[in-house]
Amino acid sequence: MKFQSHYLFYMVLLLFAGGCSATPEGQLSESRDPYEDGNRKVFAFNMDVDTYVLEPVASSYLENVPPRGQTAIGNHVRWAGMPSTAINSTLQGKFENAGLATLNFLVNGLTLGFADLTEDDAPISKADFGQTLAAADVPQGSYLMVPLLGPRTTRSLAGTLVDTVLDPVGALAAGSGARALSTVQAPLGAVTFRADNFDAVNDVKYNAIDPYARTRSIYLQSRDGMTGQTMDRGIGTSDSDDEFDAFFNEAQ
Amino acid sequence: MGCLSAALILCTSFASTSWANDAESAATKHIENMILAAEGLLHEDSNDPSKRATAVAGLLDSYFDFPAITRFSAGPYWRAATETEKREYEQALRQVIIGTVVTNFDKLQGLKYNHLASTPKGSTLVLVSGEFIDTTGARPKVLVNWRVISNPDNRPAVMDIEIENISMLITQKQENVAIIRQNKGKFAALIEAMQKQLDQ
């Protein structure tokens, strides 16, 4: 039932996205955002949800949950994403990362991820199906602002759908005692994300002149950076080079 | 003739490599000096906002290419702007940047900077990569790229800071362009919006 309800939810979201009428090109402030008008309305809705629900919950979480508790919950949320990281790292040919993610999931499964028993300093890069699609040269598509989920591109939203449908943690939890934990993972993930980025999100929300445009810019750069990592770009590289090259070429 | 061509190519390559090495060293040194200057300011900080603003302004003028930042952040609308608009925009942007740094000054305490690499980007820029580590362990490590204008004609100057793949200057530019386009291409609308934000 959980599988079907998640699947249905994301199908509705995709239909919603597909049904948005495109903003006339002359009014676009970003070429990758053809549905800007509709996206701005959804953003306003999401900001209201944040103001009345997520921000106060995250603030209360930061004030009332002790740091150790926050660490444990953060560990659990990260652990729950390890199967997706392992599967997608394998699909992208990142076998070391896949191995580390698998080991982390199996070892820390003893504590449902609340305690990190691996004591391994090697960082595990989060991998999702959106990055896998990027590695397969699937075009990024349009920028979308999705109700409750926030910013996505067509590609990353498709990736989110696949990751949710293929989530082995959700499948294993069905019909077992861990089902309750699986059900709260999405809201728990939202609260911990908001808490971990409390000041940064508030800075955009309250100090940006155009919070929608700033959120879009940060999201698209962040996704470009994540898919850049998929393509083995290392230290001393940047996805922003083209914009600066164009600036200096114009100046000459 | 073949030998002469080969010699010319070698000389040009050598000169180009030599410039690149000089530019990298100059850019790296520039960032190191800037970090030292910032650490000095943090050490002497008296928590007085006006003194902080003066100190940050000094850092901005000494280590950043503010005219280039101003032109870049206005995007394609800079050329069409009037001289008055350009002046007003520059002043507003300066206040926004200084205000942001002053507000977040305390968050810079306890950070240690490690240089990782310097990579030339074309004939003008060097990407200086580093990381900030929180000495208290409270915050995760943050990767930073400094985009430094470094060429034989000018002293080095920082144009952009990229934090975990997010360019501060590109973010500002994209937001600015969005505001202008939402206001039917009027550059003055951006200046008005910035001044309204500063007044809040």
What's a quick, concise take on this entry?
The complex is a heterodimer of chains A (about 250) and B (about 200). Chain A is mainly α and about 250 residues long. Helix content of chain A is about 65%, strand content about 5%.
Notes on the protein architecture:
The complex is a heterodimer of chains A (252) and B (200). Chain A is mainly α. Helix content of chain A is 67%, strand content 3%. Mean pLDDT of chain A is 83; it is low at 1-5 and 15-19. Chain B is α+β, with helices and mostly antiparallel strands and 200 residues long. Helix content of chain B is 57%, strand content 22%. Chain B contains six helices and five strands, in the order ααααβββββαα. Chain B has helices spanning 2-44, 49-63, 66-73, 83-103, 168-182, 187-199, and strands at 111-121, 125-134, 142-151, 154-163, 166-167. Chain B has a five-stranded antiparallel sheet. The chains are: A mainly alpha (252), B alpha+beta (200). At the A-B interface, helix 11 and helix 12 of A face strand 1, strand 2, strand 3, strand 4 and strand 5 of B.
Structural class of the helices, strands and pairings of chain B? alpha+beta
Helical element count of chain B? 6
Number of strand elements of chain A:
2
Alpha-carbon distance between the two ends of chain B:
70 Å
Strand fraction of chain A: under 5%
Could you list the spans of chain B in which at least 5 consecutive residues all have pLDDT below 50?
A: none
Number of helices of chain A: 12
For the termini of chain A, the CA-CA separation is: 62 Å
Sequence-ordered SSE layout with sheet pairings:
The complex is a heterodimer of chains A (252) and B (200).
Chain A: H1 2-19, H2 36-64, H3 67-80, H4 82-91, H5 95-108, H6 129-135, E1 143-146, E2 150-153, H7 154-165, H8 168-173, H9 179-196, H10 198-207, H11 211-230, H12 241-251
Antiparallel strand pairs in A: 1-2
Helix pairs in contact in A: 1-7, 2-9, 3-9, 4-5, 6-7, 6-11
Chain B: H1 2-44, H2 49-63, H3 66-73, H4 83-103, E1 111-121, E2 125-134, E3 142-151, E4 154-163, E5 166-167, H5 168-182, H6 187-199
Antiparallel strand pairs in B: 1-2, 2-3, 3-4, 4-5
